[in-house]
Design goal:
heterodimer, A: mainly beta, 7-stranded mixed β-sheet, 47% strand, elongated, B: 116 residues, 4-stranded antiparallel β-sheet, globular, disordered N terminus
């Protein structure tokens, strides 16, 4: 499978614990995105990487959240001191920088990691 | 069948009928739009995109219409099939002002159910 891969698929944790999720993008994609999705809502942007550089962070990304993409390939999203409000689906997407201005910038999504904080 | 944005987040159609899913976007400066389909337990899947310099784009069984005057986007699915049952999201890309211009904003979504 050459699509976006996310691990684990499900994570159950107790409040106050730290969790880390991994995303492996499509290999030739240099852009990587993290989103959060709660039931009945659309994905909410969290952060964006171009290669290894984290270029944007949403105000939704509190100090307890940190994301890395050390070699410009896979990325990790860590949540420290989890709270019940962190329970959600965490989606990763990747895309290629358009070759021309105005070109397609289609994000391909993984299946997500569902986090449940008890 | 046709949905009307946030007020009717569910749409049921008979197999073989055409479906129209609507989306109102918020930023008049948004210049790129994508429709995604999300099935239960899966991530969103790209369906079709359109830039703001176009008002219509067609794909296989799908057509996207863009009305910039009223900031409205619609997805038309021809001859709807049971496999089309999913939640459909429109996403808008807002141009860079204080950011790199790569943030996409997703709507709430419309749940489409196809009745065999």
């Amino acid at each position: 499978d050459t699509g976006v891969s996310q691990n684990p698929r499900h994570k159950i944790t107790k409040r106050g614990q730290n969790v880390t999720f991994r995303c492996d993008p499509i290999s030739e994609h240099n852009r990587l995105y993290w989103y959060r999705q709660t039931l009945g809502q659309g994905p909410e942007f969290l952060t964006y990487f171009q290669n290894e550089a984290q270029l944007e962070k949403s105000r939704l990304l509190s100090d307890r959240f940190s994301a890395e993409r050390p070699k410009g390939s896979f990325s990790t999203l860590e949540i420290q001191r989890t709270e019940q409000g962190d329970s959600a689906m965490y989606l990763c997407a990747s895309s290629s920088e358009p070759r021309l201005a105005g070109g397609q910038d289609i994000q391909y999504f993984g299946a997500g990691t569902r986090l449940s904080v008890l | 069948g046709e949905s009307v944005g946030l007020h009717l987040p569910t749409l049921s159609v008979q197999e073989g009928d055409n479906s129209i899913i609507n989306c109102a976007y918020s930023n008049s400066a948004s210049d790129y739009f994508i429709w995604y389909k999300q099935e239960s337990g899966k991530g969103p899947q790209f369906i079709i995109d359109i830039r703001s310099n176009m008002d219509k784009r067609q794909g296989q069984r799908v057509t996207v219409l863009l009305n910039k005057t009223v900031k409205h986007l619609s997805l038309q699915i021809a001859a709807t099939q049971p496999g089309d049952s999913a939640v459909y999201f429109c996403a808008e890309n807002r141009p860079a002002i204080t950011n790199t211009g790569n943030q996409f904003y997703f709507g709430t979504g419309t749940s489409l159910t196809v009745i065999p």
